[in-house]
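Handoff note, outgoing to incoming analyst
You'll be picking up this chain. Sequence as last confirmed:
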Amino acid sequence: MKSIKLIKKILKQNMIFVIMNNKFIKDILDANLNLSWKEKLAVKFTNLFNKNKFFHLQYKKITMFSVERGINLYHLLSQVINENILGEIVELGCYEGITAIIIRKTLDQLKSKKKLHVFDSFQGLPDTSFEDGEILKNGLACTNKESVIKNFEKFKVKKPVIHDGWFNETLNNLPKKICFVHLDANVYSSTKFALEKVYPKLSKGGIILIDDYCGRELDKPHKRIPGVRKACDEFFKNKERVKILISTNYDGFNQGFIKKE
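Most recent structure output, in case you need it:
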């Protein structure tokens, strides 16, 4: 008995036990997708044969987020929290809040008291430039703040601090210190401006996770959203190297990330 008590005492003093379970990511995405049983069967059948026909059905109802992206987010955020990196959490481009909910769930699982700040215009994309190609258009992916609030209530998690407006209007309200950024800005100008604002506030060891950094050809930008990679490669030219995370969804988008040195 004494030996068992001694072992427990040593473990309590020297180790922290955290139950890591990211199954909630798929549960959230499935619940938000809200497909009928016929649609679910169609998606599974199509996935099995690696076709694209039914992926568009899934895209229309859930945006371009995927389980793979959720897992990348979960593990990188968990790393920052477990390493006690100083600062708060920031999401730039939250759309209807699904990724923000995954961030909040992860923070709750790890018993973190860090605040979550989300920034979005809720007016869709801003004006694009030649760096963005010809597909993206002003106003694309338009939603509203009420959709974010409604989704947080639906999944019964604490609401984030919501900053409503264009980045040039709201990013002066960034936390003084930041430990983790999820950047989903889509266009060149927004991505570049966001990096210029958040990077100086990012703590050493902090992480920026970048959506849509490249396509299936990992050495090239994605054809639909080329401005994101161009902005990142320009900004990080003499800083950290952007590392690629395989997170391909139906249209071949992969993520990138940096860890501040």
